[in-house]
Amino acid sequence: QVQLVESGGGLVQAGGSLRLSCAASGRTFVTYAMGWFRQAPGKEREFVAAVSWDAFTTNHADSVTGRFTISRGTAKNTVYLQMNSLKPEDTAVYYCAAKTGVVSTTRNEYVYWGQGTQVTVSS
Predict the structure, then answer these.
(1) If we measure between CA atoms, which residue out of 81, 67, 85 comes closest to residue 35?
(2) Bridge partners of residue 122, in order along the sequence
(3) How far is CA 83 from CA 25, 41, 76, 77, 90, in A?
(4) CA–CA distance from 74 to each of 27, 52, 94, 95 (Å)?
(5) What is the DSSP string of the chain?
(6) Considering just the CA atoms, what is the radius of gyration of the chain in Å?
(7) pLDDT per residue of the chain (123 residues) written in tens, 0 to 9
(8) What is the distance, to the nearest Å, from the Cα of residue 102 to the centroid of all Cα atoms in its chain?
(9) Is 102 in contact with 46 (CB distance < 8 Å)?
(10) Are strands 18-25 and 78-83 parallel, antiparallel or unpaired?
(11) Both ends of the chain: CA-CA distance in Å?
(12) Which of 50, 6, 44 is nearest to 24 (CA)?
């Protein structure tokens, strides 16, 4: 069983930065692809970024490319999302997710989810 716990969310002004962390447990975690999704009130959960198990492949949503960067710290079973130049429209609950196999942008392919961490960007 894979357990995921997010941290690092908070309140920040537009143009500021935050770094989200996802701590994972489970002996097979090292071979899992990891992703970040977000969900704003009244909207569907959407893809943000993903990274392969070996960190060779990354994928970022068009809305965050150039501002957000996903990375993996395999030694500590931790995945990060560095968020720069934050905008009010980035306000959402951010979720860490895991899946077997290759990276994916599809929400339903991820089988393990964290509890979420709130990110609020003020103007």
Answers:
(1) 81
(2) 13
(3) 24, 20, 21, 20, 10
(4) 12, 11, 21, 19
(5) --EEEEE--EEEETT--EEEEEEEESTTGGG-EEEEEEE-TTS--EEEEEE-TTSS-EEE-TTTTTTEEEEEEGGGTEEEEEE-S--GGG-EEEEEEEESSS----GGG--EE---EEEEEE-
(6) 13
(7) 789 999 999 999 999 999 999 998 876 656 789 999 999 999 999 999 999 988 889 999 999 999 999 998 866 588 999 999 999 999 999 999 999 889 999 999 999 999 999 999 999
(8) 16
(9) no
(10) antiparallel
(11) 40
(12) 6
Instruction: Note the residue count of the chain.
Output: 123
- Residue that the structure tokens 């989200």 belong to: 20
